[in-house]
Design brief:
The chain is 40% helix and 14% strand. By secondary structure, it is α/β, with parallel strands linked by helices. Strand 13 (391-392) and strand 14 (401-405) form a beta hairpin.
């Protein structure tokens, strides 16, 4: 059994599929040309006929071969996918949709604009073995029904204990499992806003939120964000002009600037929320790799006026859609009803998997390694980008992101277009502002995992000449 570079073991069937696929891509057969029979191919590859039949069937499933009853297997008309340049709509991430699309479809080779940690940061970790084996250390009988719309009970209990470590007390009916932070935001927007309402957001801030609010026909007002959090003077001035239903903010490891909420800003923000009567929605997506003692709005407020969002997508896997929202039980119960009416429930299987990783200590060990990687990458990226003459906003606590500003004469669209030609994915600063018409200093968000990439740095030096 052969082992790949990433550590995955290839079965004999996998090896044959890989071998034949490479032959097809190399043009060994013409369209509709017949391949050797199962018997002949089995003999040539030194395997049983059943093994060879399974390999051919997998190639059919991939669209590379066609099976003709009583005749055999033939080169498909479609054949292997040719490598084509990205479609025009993904040549540069110049708006929220193109930025999000590229993060999902991944056309570019160098990815400093990515919003997630790279898959390679999960490679070699103990977690990888559990993903590959799809087994858990606590086997249970799994019901193949819908499950509770509230989510897997033991995971909810475990998360409530975890929140207590952050001084956030969540009632048993005050925590709902979701498909992640974005799902939690969808539920909150559906329940708490109506067309014409006003919602405050960080500026710069989490760009997918802007689209969600636009879909809900909500007026979006940006509150200036600096390294210590929302600017309270800007917030106070805009409170005098608007009456927001809520303010959605990210407390720590802020996306896109990497900043954290200082104690004084936390306290001032809570005072203004109480005085003006708006709700606070606290996105704490990176909480698991950050100190539990950091000031959090939910801890100050004890979940009375704050809805608190968390997720495993940033620290475990973007493909494991699992998160939660905690808050006042009266609000959470209504969010649970909306969840039930819209998606019925979240995945019981995913939630059990996450719970078992936590209970067995695997997740904790993974987080220790991930924190170390983030800290090392942050220091290296910060120093390297500063060394080539860029203005990098320093973060009090290392996270996934750096906010890098350019000289005023730099055109972000030209930057993205030039990077795209070299298959480099840039996240331009303008995408992170709700009002694209407002003139802002040109900038970009950089994922610290890619901040020292040689091709990226070479491109920046050349572009800035």
């Amino acid at each position: 059994m052969r082992v790949t570079g990433s550590g995955r073991k290839l079965s004999r069937v996998d090896q044959i599929v890989e071998k034949v696929a490479l032959m097809l891509e190399a043009g060994a057969y013409k369209t509709f040309e017949r391949l050797p029979s199962i018997r002949q191919a089995a003999r040539e590859n030194g395997v049983s006929k059943n093994t060879m039949a399974e390999a051919y069937d997998r190639l059919v499933a991939r669209g590379l071969l066609e099976a003709r009853a009583g005749s055999g297997y033939y080169m498909s008309q479609v054949g292997p996918a040719s490598k084509t340049p990205p479609a025009p709509h993904v040549t540069a991430a110049v708006d929220g949709m193109s930025l999000l699309r590229e993060q999902l479809e991944q056309h570019y080779e160098v990815r400093p604009g990515d919003g997630r940690p790279p898959p390679s940061w999960m490679e070699g970790a103990e977690l990888r073995r559990h993903f590959a084996n799809a087994k858990t250390p606590f086997p249970e009988a799994i019901e193949f029904g819908y499950g509770s719309s509230w989510g897997y009970g033991p995971l909810r209990d475990r998360l409530r204990m975890q929140l207590l470590e952050r001084s956030i007390p969540a009632d048993p009916q005050g925590l709902l499992l979701t498909h992640g932070v974005n799902h939690g935001l969808d539920l909150i927007i559906r329940h708490l806003t109506e067309p014409g309402d006003t919602v405050f957001v960080d500026e710069p801030g989490y760009y997918p939120l802007f689209s969600k609010l636009t879909f809900a026909k909500v007026q979006i007002v940006g509150i200036r964000r600096d390294r210590d959090g929302p600017d309270l003077e800007d917030l106070t001035a805009k409170l005098a002009l608007y009456r927001p239903k809520m303010f959605v903010t990210q407390s720590h490891g802020h996306n896109p600037t990497g900043g954290s909420l200082s104690p004084s800003r936390s306290f001032g923000l809570m005072q203004l929320a109480e005085r003006w009567g708006f709700l606070l929605v606290e996105n704490d997506a990176l909480a698991d790799i950050l100190p539990a003692t950091l000031p959090r709005l939910a801890a100050l407020d004890q979940l009375e006026r704050v809805l608190y969002l968390g997720t495993f997508s940033k620290t475990l896997s973007a493909s494991l859609r699992c998160g939660y929202v905690a808050g006042n039980p009266d609000i959470i119960r209504q969010l649970a009803d909306i969840k039930m009416l819209t998606v019925v429930n979240s995945s019981d299987h995913v939630e059990r998997f996450v719970f078992n990783l936590m209970q067995a200590g695997h997740y904790l060990r993974h987080l220790r390694r991930l924190r170390s990687r983030v800290e090392d990458a942050y220091k290296a990226s910060f120093g390297t980008l500063e060394a080539i003459g860029l203005s990098v906003r320093e973060c009090s606590i290392p996270g996934f992101y750096l906010w890098v500003e350019f000289p005023d004469e730099v055109d972000e669209r030209e930057l993205c277009a030039a990077a795209s030609k070299q298959s480099i994915f840039i996240a331009p600063g303008a995408v992170f502002y709700p009002n694209r018409e407002t003139r802002q200093k040109p900038a970009m968000r950089v994922n610290v995992a890619y901040g020292t990439d040689a091709r990226f740095l070479s491109f920046l030096r050349e572009f800035l000449k």
